[in-house]
Amino acid sequence: DSGVTQTPKHLITATGQRVTLRCSPRSGDLSVYWYQQSLDQGLQFLIQYYNGEERAKGNILERFSAQQFPDLHSELNLSSLELGDSALYFCASSVGPGGSYEQYFGPGTRLTVT
Amino acid sequence: GENVEQHPSTLSVQEGDSAVIKCTYSDSASNYFPWYKQELGKRPQLIIDIRSNVGEKKDQRIAVTLNKTAKHFSLHITETQPEDSAVYFCAASMDSNYQLIWGAGTKLIIKP
Predict the structure, then answer these.
(1) What is the rounded CA–CA span in Å between residue B78 and residue B62?
(2) How do residues A78-97 score in pLDDT, each as one tens digit?
(3) What is the rounded CA–CA span in Å between residue A41 and residue A48?
(4) Closest CB to B100 among A103, A107, A108
(5) B46 and B33 in contact (C-beta within 8 Å)?
(6) In this predicted structure, what is the pLDDT of residue A51?
(7) Backbone angles phi, psi at A109, to 5 degrees
(8) Which one of B4, B37, B99 would you mutate to disrupt binding with A, by most A Cβ within 10 Å of its Cβ?
(9) What is d(CA B105, CA B95) in angstroms, rounded to the nearest whole number?
(10) Cys-Cys crosslink for A23: which of A91, B8, B65, B104, Cβ 3.0 to 4.6 Å?
(11) What is the pLDDT of residues A30-83, one digit of tens each?
C-alpha cells in the first residue's frame, strides 16, 4: 500500500457524460500528478499540482480539468467523454521541491466509456 | 524539453538469464533517473533510482548504470525469475520542476 488513495476503483459511463476522479496523496506529500494509461500503453502525464497550484501540464485535453484543494486532495474532471477516454487513470504523489523525487502511485481508477 | 527513449519495447529472456533495458535522455540538466516496475493490473512502483553524481547503483539482483556523457542509463536484472515479468518504465527528472519524463516502457517476459 503506497498511502495514496483513489476513488472510485471502477467507473462505467456513457459517451458525452462527465465524471470526477478523486485522489488523496500520502500524508506529508504536497505534489499530486495525474496520469492516463490506455490498454497496453505507457504512462501519459496529464497534469501536476503542488500545494494547490498547477505546476506542469502534459497532454491533457481541454475536456479534462483538475484541481488540488486546501486539504491537498485532488480531483480530475473528465467531460464530454468519448470511447477513447477509456483507460486507467493513476494519481501519484511526492513530497515536492526540496524533498524526494519519488512518486508514489495510487491503485488507479479504471474508466470505461460505453 | 526533455525526451526519454526506451528500448526494447519487449524483451523475452530465459529464466535465470540476465536482462538489460536501456534509456536515453536529451536534456543534460536531468539529474535523477528512476526505474519503475508495473505488474499486470497494478500500480507502478519504484524499484531503483540513481542520481547524476553516481555512475552505478546496485540492489541485490537489480542494478542501474548511468553514462552522463552519452546521456543514457540502463537497468540490469540478473538471475531473472518469473516474478520479474512486468512492464518496466524509466524516467528522468531535474530539480527545476520535479516532473518525471517517462520512457514508453519495456515488457519483460521471463520464459520458464
Answers:
(1) 7
(2) 999 999 999 999 999 998 77
(3) 20
(4) A103
(5) no
(6) 92
(7) -120, 120
(8) B99
(9) 23
(10) A91
(11) 999 999 999 878 899 999 999 999 998 988 999 999 999 999 999 999 999 999
Contact B103 A105 (CB under 8 A): no
Q: How buried is A74 (Cβ within 10 angstroms: 0-12 exposed, 13-18 middle, 19+ buried)?
A: buried
Is the model's pLDDT at B108 over the cut of 80? yes
Query: In the prediction, which pLDDT does B97 show?
Result: 66
Mind telling me how many Å the CA of B17 is from chain A's nearest CA?
25
Q: What pLDDT was estimated at residue B54?
A: 84
A45–B100 C-beta distance less than 8 A: yes
Under 8 Å CB pairs connecting chains A and B tally to 50
Beta-carbon contacts of residue A57 (< 8 Å; ≥ 6 apart): A46, A47, A48
What pLDDT, on the 0 to 100 scale, is given for residue A99? 73
Percentage of the residues of chain A whose pLDDT score is greater than 70: 100
CA angle A45, A47, A48 (to 5 degrees): 110
The cell 523525487 sits on which residue?
A: A101
Report d(CA B112, CA B98) in Å as an integer: 39
Q: Is the CB of A54 inside 8 Å of chain B's CB atoms?
A: no
Cell of A106: 495510487
Asked whether residue B21 carries a pLDDT value surpassing 80, the answer given is yes
Q: What's the average model confidence in pLDDT over B3-30?
A: 96
A113 contacts: CB under 8 Å, gap ≥ 6: A13, A14, A15, A17, A81, A82, A83, A84, A85, A86
